[in-house]
Amino acid sequence: xMRAAMLDLAAPTDSGWLPRAxxxxxxxxxxxxxxxxxxxxxxxxxxxxxxxxxALLPALSALAREELRHFERVxxxxxxxxxxxxxxxxSPYAAELMxxxxxxxxxxxxxxxxxxxxxxxxxxxxxxxxxxGVADDALAAxxxxxxxxxxxxxxxxxDLAAGVAGAAAVRERLRVxxxxxxxxxxxxxxxxxxxx
Length: 196
Ligand SMILES: [Fe+2]
Ligand SMILES: [Fe+2]
Prior knowledge:
The protein contains seven helices and no strands. It has helices spanning 17-23, 25-49, 56-80, 93-98, 107-133, 137-165, 167-186. The two termini are 20 Å apart.
């Protein structure tokens, strides 16, 4: 089991989330595909925003490729259940989380990397819950696999943040942003989403 504290999360997922997610698993799966695609897109957008940060480029490129492979795996899981990928109203979680990112550089880069680390951490925690809760063995195996990857992505974003701002700044700012992340989740509307 992936513990919230290991992932730098300020609060664990409440006990009501998993039963709600399992009761609406098709909707969760579609949202999950969107999340993987968005994770790739964010990594690519950072490649464009920070071309002069050489330490970021190979790591972000690798992350983007890996998230697109995850996207393809979740699409395959959708197909296996007879579901189609479709548009969905996103959870306000990511946009709300990003509101805490300070607007001016270099703070903006540090905060963005830490926000991404927290999104990866929350994904990891929730995929671990799903892995332990779904009846479908193939789906449980996919979730277990992705838990490993998202935990690694959490570390990768933290390492990038430490590289640009130093370990002390990361520790201090991560505490603030992790509290914000938990507050965003606590007031998120009840939706069948990975981050709601
Ligand atoms: Fe992923
Ligand atoms: Fe990820």
